[in-house]
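go over this chain:
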Amino acid sequence: MARKKRKPAKIRARMRAASVSLLPGYVDDIEWRSLLDELGPGDVREPQWRIHDQTHLELAIDHPLNSGKHRTEWECYYFFPRSFRIDKEAYPRARFYGDQQTYVRFALQQKTFQELTEKDLPELERVLKSANTEKKLAELKLFASTLRTSLFVARRTLQEMLEAELDQSPDASETADIEAASLALASGCKVFLAEFRTLLSAQEFDEGMQIAARLTDEAISRNVETVFATLSLSLRQYGEESLAAQVAKVAVDEARYRRAESLDEVGSATAERREIEHLEFRRGVLKKFTESQLWLRAKPMEAGKLTLQVLYALAASVAMSFAVVMAAYHGPQDRNAFGDLWTWAAIVILAYAGKDRIKSTLQQVFSRWVAKRYPQRKFKLQPREHQDKKAPIVGYVDENTHYPSTHKLPKDVLEVRNSSRSHEVEQRARPEQVLFHHRIATLDGEAARAIDNRFVALTEIVRLDFSNILAHTDDPKRRIVFADPDDAHIYSAMAPRVYNVSIVYRCKRGDETSPWKRIRVVVSRKGIKRIEPVV
């Protein structure tokens, strides 16, 4: 089987250092947490783009929860082909906001099995012995979420090591590192699971907590099974059959454990479609249960509403004052004079018309003034588990979007957008419509840590539905004809019809400077094909 392309030495060195961090007792002078602590304080990932499904583009932004209040500013320019008919009439900002879904959750610090066993399990035991049922339930959920995060980061890093190290002639020491890391992960997991289940069995729970404990145990078991099964398949793909079998045993043991404990259904080689469907459904249920403690709700607020209403009232007062003054000033001296009465009535009508126009004009002026100084949408972030009005406020998110003219775009944005073009004439050949999306997240680190000091960051996930955006694209395939200059024959073929959507963006945290970056999203009428970074 052909090996994958070898990565640069710098990346391989980083991966090798990360592999050692998985191994308690393997190399003493390496900090284990260097692998798992992706979201530690002051260390957050760059914004990540990915394809969620065929029609949804997904963006993940990490916000560090430093002490005090701080903000993260997100600026993003979408360059759509003009043929998409994306403009303020055909695709107003209300539709853009409707096509956009935002999810916000706390990020936990990733830990090793040794930390989970030596530090987190004693803390879990202390809370489970308390009389506070809500706190016990929350602690079980957070514990399961911490383990899940750590497991998946460990598995992903081992996968990256395999891709980086295993080429046509892998170094023996590199292969040994991967083997030692995989086995250490497996042995650490076994020790942890035994300690965790011993702790649960020693507790005296009421009926509700018994159900919660069983759900937590099942969620942890399924996560362990998934991680080690996936790792086993990767090892087998690269020819490590013996190591793959040892790693797979952890996944098999967990499936057998759940069957013995009657923790819902397990997979089978003879499973029917409905049974497989249930496994996925169950996975989703358990994930929602254990991670419910991490999610926040974004409660919408009407920014500038009170200010706008006050200004509208002022506009009405000014307009009415004009009408009253006009009517009083030109009022008839002799009310019995029929001619003067009609003159006065005409003046009143004209004054009312002027009042109406003054009011409308002032409202438009005030509306534009408020729009420049207040966000179009504003949300306050609060934990989902707190349903009362006194729920702590973790932060606020302000959001705006509009269609700027191309010639008014910042110079550095245009430079990044045109970096792949050889001449400005190409802009005329491929005209584009620009949509600007701007978000400012102002977070209160102290408020977040008051909820739980283990929260180290917020992760904001934004999904944009391309269904409406692609409504005016051509058929995904078109038959074309061409001449072959070599054999002098005419041929026809079905050609895929794709479009490029360029996205120029940057994320500024606090006062730091951040460069503009660019990606290219390749789409067709059927949906999103791929994402290509542009450097």
In short: The longest strand covers residues 69-81. The chain has 14 helices and 14 strands. The mean pLDDT is 80.
